[in-house]
Structures are given as C-alpha cells and as structure tokens.
Write the structure tokens for this entry.
Amino acid sequence: MPRYYFDIHDQEGDFRDEEGLDFPDLDAAIAVARKTLGGLVQDALREPGLETVAITVRDGQDGPVMMRVTLETNLPDQPPSR
Amino acid sequence: MMTAQGLSDPALLQTFFQRLERRDELGPDERRAMAELFRHERRLEAGAEIVGEGERPGQSTLLLSGITARAKLMGDGERQITAFNVPGDFVDLHSFLLKELDHSVVAITPIEFTQIAHADLERVTERFPHLSRMLWLATLLDSAINREWLVGLGRRSALARAAHIFCEMGLRLNAVGLGSPDNYEFAVTQTDLADAMGLSAVHVNRVIQDLRARNLLVWQGSRVSLPNLDGIRELAEFDDRYLNLMKERR
C-alpha cells in the first residue's frame, strides 16, 4: 500500500507530516483527509480569528491534493470579514 | 490437558485486589472466597476478540496484564472504542447481570486474563454482601469513566481529549501498582487512540505532535511520559474526582 502524508494548516500553524500513513489508494487517503478536516474545523471554530483550515495530501506519485475549508463571517453593516 | 482449575499464582490477582482496596478494605475471607473462584490464566494475542457483541458469556473476564478495549463496530466498518481496560479491571463484569453483551471486547496488546463463572459470582455475592458492593463499585467506576469520556467526546477539543486520556491512564495504572501517573507503559497504537477519541488517525497524529511541541507528552514505543503533569492536567481540565481514589467504608 502506498504511503500518504497529510500536511495540516490549522490554528496552531503549519504541520508537516513526516511519518505518513498507508492507504490502498489516493481516494482512501482523501476520504480520511476529509474526515480529519471535519474534526479540525470543529476545533478551529472554537477560537475566533482563524478563517482557513487545510490539509494537503501528498505521496511520491499522486498529488499533492489540497483540501481547504474557509470560513467567512459577515457582520451586519460592515465589509465582509475575511 | 491440565486439570488445574485455579490460577497458577495467587499474586496474579494483585492488580484486581489493589483496584478495590484503593477504595475500601477487603476482609481476608472475602479475598480468599473471591480468589479461589478464578480459573487458570490464559493468554491472547493483540487484536483477538475476547467476547463478541451479542454473545451471552457464562463467565466474566478479569484482565491480568495488557490492555483491552470495549468496542462497537459501525456499519461502514468504523470502530468506536468506548473504554480501555487495564490490569485489575473486569472487562465485562456487567455481563453477569446484563447477560447479553451489547459490545465486543478486544485485546489491544497481548494480554493475560482469567475468568470467573457467573454461577460462582452469584454464590459468592450471596455469601458476602460487602464483596457484592465492591463489585458493584467496580462497575460504577466503569460508568464514571464512561461519563468522563462522554464529556470529552461531546465537549472537549481534540487536544484536550487526548490530554485527558493520557492523564487518566497514568492514574488508573498507578492505582493498580503499574507505573506512575507521569510515566507508564501504554502499548496502544494511534489508530486505537483515534477509535477511542472518535477522530481519524491523521487527526490524532496531529494532536500528538501538538502535545509534543508543547512539551506535555513524550510517547516513544509503548512508553508514555508526561514531563509537565500540571501543565497537561490544566490543558485537559483534568480532575481525578471521577476515579474515586479514596479509601472509605463502602
């Protein structure tokens, strides 16, 4: 099974995955990345200020595949916040 | 085939008695009556199932060494671990009265265990009311830990949830004489931990890295050490009250 690496950008900053995990294919790795993103977003939203959580899946051949969730908070009578 | 019924060495029950006697004294007659009911110890490899979901075991299993988990399998193949058990824990004392087990019990590491027949449990609990209360207490401790995990799954951040488990395992192992609260053997994989925390293994890996970066956790091989116990407890909002580590009349 190929090994995939999951680099994460969250409220703690950027985390480069040096260990990786084995998955049957890129689709399986993406499915896990999506689930992980869900958990990361939940935690990121606990703190004000963070707008983007992202995971980049990479391996030797495929990718990289980047997945990103961006939150917009539009306050009334103010320009949209980033 | 050996005819020996009982344990090869009564000292194997040390963690079990220590778990109870950390909370209340047992009389010598209670200890003896209980000890002679356990069957010969057995071993299983990591990954083996001890009891399957839906089974009706005629005995309850006491863990002597290693770590087991209570687990539920989901339709999509995912697994939720609802409890880790450590030596001295009954992994399914509740099957004595619930009869049918609504979850499975799996060995997370290689384990040693012993069993006690439900018919024997029935007799000994009728003879020794205080011992019955202590076994009742054992299941109440399980549910207190379940409550704390529920709070973690529902309300704690992934980081605090992981921190909480590391604080808890240290205290539970220490309470049965294995390791110290800040340094203990914990041979689970990140995948096991992910299944206990309701997260993906990728997320758990991220969280472990974060705890490391904060100098709150060193996890090498199967050895966990918590270099700043106050710090990790503060992060986890860990309060050991639910573990009921007080000796009093019960």
